[in-house]
Amino acid sequence: MNSTIDIIGILSAVAVLTGLGIGFGALLGVVSERFKREDNPLVEQIDALLPQTQCGQCGYPGCRPYAEAINQGDALNKCPPGGEATIHALADLLGRAPEPLDGEAQSEAKVAFIREAECIGCTKCIQACPVDAIIGAAKLMHTVIEDECTGCDLCLDPCPVDCIDMLPRSAPLTQWQPVVARTSNMIASDRQPASGVS
Amino acid sequence: MSNAFDFPGGIYPPERKQRSNQSALIEAPLPSRVTLPLQQHSGQPATPCVAQGDTVKVGSVIAKREGMVSSALHASISGTVGEVSTTQISIDGDGQDAWLRLPPLEWQYAEPHALLERLNESGIVGLGGAGFPAHIKARVVERHTIDTLVINAAECEPYITADDLTLRHYANEVLEGAQITAKLCGAQHIVIGIEDNKPEAIDALKQALTNSQPVPVELTVIATRYPSGGERQLIKKLLDLNVPSGGLPADVGVLCHNPGTLLAILHAVRDGQPLVSRTVTLTGEAITQPGNRWVRLGTSVRELLEQTGLNTSELHQVIQGGPMMGTPLLTLDTPVTKLTNCLIAATLEELPPPPAESPCIRCGECESVCPVALLPQQLHWYARAQDDAKLERYHLFDCIECGACSYVCPSHIPLVVDYREAKSRIRLQRIEATKAEHAKHRFEFRQARLAREEAEKQARKQARQAQQRRPSNTAATNSEKVDLRGLRIAHAAAKASVKKAEKTLARVAQEDPKQSLDDLEMQLATAQENLKAAELQLAQAREQQSSEESS
Q1: Closest CA relative to residue B130, chosen from B62, B64, B71
Q2: Which sequence spans correspond to the domains of chain B?
Q3: B225-271 pLDDT, tens per residue?
Q4: If 0-12 CB within 10 Å is exposed, 13-18 middle and 19+ buried, where does residue B413 land?
Q5: pLDDT tens per residue across span A104-127
Q6: How far is A129 from chain B (nearest CA, A)?
Q7: Whether A178 and B443 lie within 8 Å, measured CB to CB
Q8: How many CA atoms lie within 13 A of B417 on its CB side?
Q9: Separation of alpha carbons B257 and B262, rounded Å
């Protein structure tokens, strides 16, 4: 008597759980199709950490392609404008070991400057600029919009007359940084004998 | 005063105000040469509008406002313009002191618009120390409702007596200036907050109160404690209102002004006199005639101190501002600016250099005196470690840099120096981040433009081919399989992103009309370019398909 009830109980439990499994499985399947994202959110996060100079020194045409390549497993250390800070931020994000920078780190922010007297108006640098920071027209003088220039160097090579220089970016007073001379942190008892001797 | 109306922390440093508040407020001698820096206010520096050799009178505009938050600059003596550089303008005086005044305004009958314009062209900025342009501050009513105007006469820093003397001499005028400001911002009450260590100023105010019209004025005398003159601290103490973190006093319906600023506003409106001079407290043990002076802007600090009997052999350092928040001057050949409220010529015994710094012992003294209830020792560790995420989580940007923590620190750690450094570092990082984001958008726009141009080229090519094909009727069909469905999805996605960009732009433009929308406009343009490219590709594919079907 009890055994029939037990079998019904067992069967109903199995049926309910299977039903739930199928139901939620279907729901998950539908949701993943319905709210499918073409772009990879991790690529967005990686891209946000890159310096966006679009310089191509990593071997990819811009920061976003490099972010996609990092997501596919490429090395983290190919971004000289970002330097060590970017490598560490990327390593933190992806849980990988930071590697030393491949290439020379940039010491200061630079911008391109066209020596306008020498410019022949060939528009080659305009075509090379990844952020449209150079204005000018054919056979007319070109110039760089300093605020828009990312200092990527990409305009240097195409210039047939070598009239482009990379100059340090001018820093407005509002971006002034205080220079703080840090004394070494010594405990007071260590300091006393030295001053006592002298 | 009840405890509820109180801010946390605070310290009681020696006041040392007696030295400068004994003598009357007098005019300093007219300088023979002035140097006027272009940046004497917060925001963008002014742009010079005079050239070398130009003749100017007192009150002639020599530099114009540049951008939104900025202020005009006027000649403070009459004479000829000497040198105009990118940072300052110098004027050689002719000793005439010829004035160029604007027409006087009757503020009771003048339009608010005319009053605002007067503040703008008179170059008035907050004279308490921050130097925020007064005309921008008055325009706060465009987005906030102001109920109370607070006159900040607390002057809590040791040594400084400029506001004290201003109130003793010009109590009526300061209140009239307050009435003008109250009219501009629509305030229903005026509250004066003053510390109880200025009995003469309090008496003068009490007398002036009775005939101040039309907004009622209330005088609240508070106990002397540093830093009760901080804007947020004073609002808490007078009105028991908490200004939100990262917000403005206007968020709680309050506007705060310094008595000196109100006096300058009155002079600008009633007399048409732009901001060319200010009261400066000259004090310290190293000068023999301390006191307060009306000083023309641009006067050399050295000249000013020598006129008051500077004892060079005794002088250890000159501090601009108060001893708590001021900065030591590296050279005396700097000019008095709109922000110079006090000059302390201190001897070595008076303000000795701080002893060498020792490590933090975590005593917690700093925490108990912090008027903003921050955790200064935690901030100290994170600032030294340059842990910016933690610094922001511990509300570094709420620090008012009052220096109470450094004052009580038994290890003599210059805590505020650390915070200032960290703040400017984080600010620079934010600027860099916005710049990178901007570059990214420009790059995306360029990519979209190139894609559109490529699609247009393809379309033209196809049209040409079709034209050639029709008359000859050769079936030179493309064997490529057209992915019409994929293109349709891409087209729909591009359309959606254009709509999204339009919506964001409209929302931001409505929320904050003054914000620069360049970046958002560029994102919209990028989306539009993408849409155009997708449309072209789709049209092309459809045509190809139909031609395939017909052939």
Answers
A1: B71
A2: 3-293, 427-474+483-508+519-550
A3: 999 999 999 999 999 999 998 888 999 999 999 999 999 999 999 99
A4: buried
A5: 777 778 899 999 999 999 999 999
A6: 9
A7: no
A8: 13
A9: 7
Q: Provide residues of A within 8 Å CB-CB of chain B.
A: 38, 47, 51-54, 62-64, 130-133, 148, 150, 173-178, 180, 183, 185, 187-188, 191
Task: Give how far B112 is from chain A: nearest CA, Å.
Answer: 32
Give the dihedral sign, CA B358/B359/B362/B365.
Answer: positive
Mean pLDDT of chain B: 89
Tell me the CA end-to-end span of chain B in Å, nearest whole number.
95
Query: Residue B298 class from Cβ within 10 Å (0-12 exposed, 13-18 middle, 19+ buried)?
Result: buried
Tokens 């999204």 belong to B500
Q: Do B443 and A175 touch (CB under 8 A)?
A: no
| Cβ atoms within 10 Å of B25's Cβ, excluding its own | 19
Question: Is residue B213 within 8 Å of residue B219, measured between CB atoms?
Answer: no
Minimum CA–CA partner of A81 in chain B: B436
Structure tokens at B271: 């007399």
pLDDT digits (tens, 9 = 90+) for A63-97: 989 999 999 988 888 888 888 888 988 999 999 88
CB contact under 8 A, A187 and B442: no
The helix-helix angle for B199-209 and B162-185 (nearest 10°) equals 30
CB contact under 8 A, A47 and B447: no
Q: How far is A51 from chain B (nearest CA, A)?
A: 6
What CATH architecture is B3-293? 3-Layer(aba) Sandwich (3.40)
Q: How far apart are CA A133 and CA B18, in angstroms?
A: 60
The question of ipTM being above 0.90 is answered as: no
Which among A51, A62, A180 is the nearest to B417, CB-wise? A180
> Are B443 and A63 within 8 A, CB to CB?
yes
Q: Which domains, and CATH codes, for chain A?
A: 41-94 (1.10.15.40), 108-169 (3.30.70.20)
> How far away is chain A from the Cα of B293, in angstroms, using its nearest Cα?
30
Give yes or no for residue A194 having a pLDDT over 60.
Answer: no
CA A117 to centroid of chain Cα atoms: 36
